[in-house]
Amino acid sequence: MTTDHTLGTRTLGSDSALTVSTLGLGCMGMSEFYGTPDEQAGIETIRRALDLGVTFIDTADMYGPFTNEQLVGKAIAGRRDEVQLATKFGNERLPDGTRVGINGSPAYVRSACDASLQRLGVDHLDLYYQHRVDRSVPIEETVGAMSELVEAGKVRHLGLSEAGAATIRRAHATHPITALQSEYSLFSRDLEDEVLPTIRELGIGLVPYSPLGRGLLTGALDTSSLGSKDPRANGRFPRFQGEALETNLALVERVRAIAADQEVTPGQLALAWVLAQGEDVAPIPGTKRVAYLEENVAAAGVTLTGDVLAALDAAVPRGAVAGDRYDDMSSVNA
Fold first, then answer.
1. Which residues form a coiled coil (predicted)?
2. Residues near 25 by Cβ (< 8 Å), separated by ≥ 6?
3. 98, 121, 143, 238: which sits with the fewest CB atoms below 10 Å from its CB?
4. How is 236-248 classified by DSSP, letter by letter?
5. Contact, 112 vs 41, CB < 8 A?
């Protein structure tokens, strides 16, 4: 293992290329889902990220809902030119948090974009994703409406999230897709079968979310460390339930042993594995604390040898992880 603490850049997409920091920052947990929101801590974390060269900032309208975009807007005020700003639409929610469903209608695309721009306090988005594919609306119609936002100067680049290979091909034929955001980690490798070869054929970058397995791969979680309101504890994520969790924690211990041998943390090793999967990969580990941000950034300077990568593949074989990624998988790989 070698380390280099200079955070570089990676380029997503070829037909519509966007250069981003090697590592991004997922902001979802600052406003919802993982513990108690702390806006000020989130703002401080984002600003520290920018200071460290983490300029690829990821949010979505449904986080909060809506409050995460406002938080990000406050954090990047006065520093917009440093940021590659990404947000998403499609998981429609009401202000009280009620989930309406997945909406990919052209009218909704336009109204959602305008609302996001207003909340973020910016005049354009660097990357605009369809958060989940609306199976009731042809992807050509959704991406067609997204392309109109590019023509209007409101959006620079287009992305999809958790889309299947056939959908990606149809979308890319309508307008160049710059990036696909999907879950990808040592614990989540299903996209390697069809999706990853497809996006590489088409010249589309990969933005892995949950590259630390929703915290499991940090080695900091156990059966008693999750609060009752944490969705990881209430059944939404089967990998955190009962026997599945015990199986997965045993895998984490194997990762921990390799990490100790490399003199890095388990989380840093897991992130370094994702980064080693290709120069077209720019993960967005999420955190709301400066200390964890700094630990993650250091992972970008870790270079793994072929022997270490082989050891990780042997320690966590594909298919060894117990439980689905979500309790309802109907909206992924769509």
1. none
2. 45, 46, 49, 54, 56, 57, 58, 284, 285, 286, 287, 293
3. 98
4. SSGGGSHHHHHHH
5. no
Q: Can you tell me which residue has the tokens 């309208």?
A: 61
Taking the model in full, what pTM does it have? 0.95
| pLDDT tens per residue across span 39-51 | 999 999 999 999 9
Return d(Cα 36, Cα 227) in angstroms, integer.
Answer: 10
Catalytic residue set: 63
For 189-210, the pLDDT digits (tens) are 999 999 999 999 999 999 999 9
Residue in the block written with tokens 């490798």: 189
In this structure, are residues 26 and 330 in contact, taking their beta carbons and an 8 Å threshold?
A: no
Report how far residue 141's alpha carbon sits from residue 81's, in angstroms, rounded to the nearest whole number.
Answer: 31
Tokens standing for 42? Answer: 């989130």
Contact 164, 191 (CB under 8 A): no
Is the pLDDT confidence value at 122 over 80? yes
Give CA–CA dist 286/149, Å, rounded. Answer: 27
Buried b (16+ CB within 10 A) or exposed e, 177-213: bbbbbbbbbbbbbbbeeebbebbeebbbbbbbbbbbb
* Domains defined for the chain, CATH in brackets: 9-216+267-302 (3.20.20.100)
Query: Quick check: 269 and 212 in contact, CB under 8 A?
Result: no
Alpha-carbon 318 to chain mean position: 20
Which amino acid, one-letter code, is at 118?
Answer: Q
**248 token code pair:** 């997965």
Token pair 């406050």 is at which residue? 74
Rounded to the nearest integer, the mean pLDDT of the chain is 94
What does 59-106 look like in DSSP terms, one character per residue?
--TTTTTTHHHHHHHHHHTT-GGG-EEEEEE-EEE-TT--EEEE---H
Q: What is the pLDDT of residue 34?
A: 75
> What whole-number distance in Å separates Cα of residue 32 and Cα of residue 68?
8
Both ends of the chain: CA-CA distance in Å? 38
